Amino acid sequence: MPAACDSMLEDIEDIVSADDVKPHNRQFLRRNVFPKVRKRNSQKNTQTDDDPPSDSIIPGAQKIWIRTWGCSHNNSDGEYMAGQLAAYGYKITDDSAEADLWLLNSCTVKNPAEDHFRNSIKKAQEGKKKVVVAGCVPQAQPRQDYLKGLSIIGVQQIDRVVEVVEETIKGHSVRLLGQKKDNGKRLGGARLDLPKIRKNPLIEIISINTGCLNACTYCKTKHARGDLASYPIEELVDRAKQSFQEGVCEIWLTSEDTGAYGRDIGTDLPTLLWKLVEAIPEGAMLRLGMTNPPYILEHLEEMAKILNHPRVYAFLHIPVQSASDSVLMDMKREYCVADFKVVVDFLKEK
């Protein structure tokens, strides 16, 4: 019996039967073959719709809206906080809607300002914004119900605004309300050489001291700013010089009571003003802030000379409060109507 291979093949196609799959059909069938995929652990690879862990948020990339109420001292604090945040990388925006975090810098002098502050907190929370509060309201009354769970920057802690904002963006609540001291002595507040974003690039607001010497019966600012603490003259002069180098052409001096300046560090307001006048370049001006009558009475002659200087505005803010001695006594204002008249009449005459 001949072997199968003994037969001669005329062509290679002779070994392919008519029933065999043709090459083009084989290619078509291959398209319908699906490789078998090994099942993975679904729990390890499932992406949740929840927010990412708070620690995965990168601070410094967010937009911050800052709102300040109140006096020029408070406005200066707001400018310092804006400057530090911008230097760190945060974008300071004028659009509250696009901001990721609202920094609300409050004032406690009048009820309307405090009401606006409280309403702004509510609006921020309704808009799912992160909130940091600062200024006199949370410093004086940090246990208010509407402040529960919010991060707070104390009036003497504005140089730590970056870390408070950073932790708040991560979802944490931070409260810094302590007083700055050096060897047990209360300091004036945050350093004066911090970066700043001025609302008016031509005006530098310098706080010469914080707190005051009075204890007026109606004033809540005392509870926030505390007793008098003055900055050294050399630091204030250096800040003024730095501001002029940055293009500022007007300096505003501010505090809760400029007239009381220096009484805690062995100097006085006229001494500071003469030093500042020496540092003011031609074409620039100096403007004084509010002073209570008791602390200006003994300096009237020197103050008149200073206010007559060509680079100092002939302007002084002296509160009347009341034309009744009995009311002034009840308010613990520590002056009478006659004291106020002496100050005003003397300076107007000069």
TrEMBL record:
<dbReference type="InterPro" id="IPR006466">
    <property type="entry name" value="MiaB-like_arc_euk"/>
</dbReference>
<keyword id="KW-0949">S-adenosyl-L-methionine</keyword>
<keyword id="KW-0819">tRNA processing</keyword>
<comment type="function">
    <text>Catalyzes the methylthiolation of N6-threonylcarbamoyladenosine (t(6)A), leading to the formation of 2-methylthio-N6-threonylcarbamoyladenosine (ms(2)t(6)A) at position 37 in tRNAs that read codons beginning with adenine.</text>
</comment>
<keyword id="KW-0408">Iron</keyword>
<feature type="domain" description="Radical SAM core">
    <location>
        <begin position="198"/>
        <end position="350"/>
    </location>
</feature>
<keyword id="KW-0004">4Fe-4S</keyword>
<dbReference type="GO" id="GO:0035598">
    <property type="term" value="F:tRNA (N(6)-L-threonylcarbamoyladenosine(37)-C(2))-methylthiotransferase activity"/>
</dbReference>
<keyword id="KW-0256">Endoplasmic reticulum</keyword>
<dbReference type="Pfam" id="PF04055">
    <property type="entry name" value="Radical_SAM"/>
</dbReference>
<keyword id="KW-1133">Transmembrane helix</keyword>
<comment type="similarity">
    <text>Belongs to the methylthiotransferase family. CDKAL1 subfamily.</text>
</comment>
<dbReference type="Pfam" id="PF00919">
    <property type="entry name" value="UPF0004"/>
</dbReference>
<feature type="region of interest" description="Disordered">
    <location>
        <begin position="36"/>
        <end position="56"/>
    </location>
</feature>
<keyword id="KW-0472">Membrane</keyword>
<dbReference type="GO" id="GO:0051539">
    <property type="term" value="F:4 iron, 4 sulfur cluster binding"/>
</dbReference>
<dbReference type="GO" id="GO:0005789">
    <property type="term" value="C:endoplasmic reticulum membrane"/>
</dbReference>
<protein>
    <recommendedName>
        <fullName>tRNA-t(6)A37 methylthiotransferase</fullName>
        <ecNumber>2.8.4.5</ecNumber>
    </recommendedName>
</protein>
<dbReference type="InterPro" id="IPR020612">
    <property type="entry name" value="Methylthiotransferase_CS"/>
</dbReference>
<keyword id="KW-0479">Metal-binding</keyword>
<dbReference type="InterPro" id="IPR023404">
    <property type="entry name" value="rSAM_horseshoe"/>
</dbReference>
<keyword id="KW-0812">Transmembrane</keyword>
<dbReference type="InterPro" id="IPR038135">
    <property type="entry name" value="Methylthiotransferase_N_sf"/>
</dbReference>
<keyword id="KW-0808">Transferase</keyword>
<keyword id="KW-0411">Iron-sulfur</keyword>
<feature type="domain" description="MTTase N-terminal">
    <location>
        <begin position="62"/>
        <end position="170"/>
    </location>
</feature>
<dbReference type="InterPro" id="IPR013848">
    <property type="entry name" value="Methylthiotransferase_N"/>
</dbReference>
<dbReference type="InterPro" id="IPR007197">
    <property type="entry name" value="rSAM"/>
</dbReference>
<dbReference type="GO" id="GO:0046872">
    <property type="term" value="F:metal ion binding"/>
</dbReference>
<dbReference type="InterPro" id="IPR058240">
    <property type="entry name" value="rSAM_sf"/>
</dbReference>
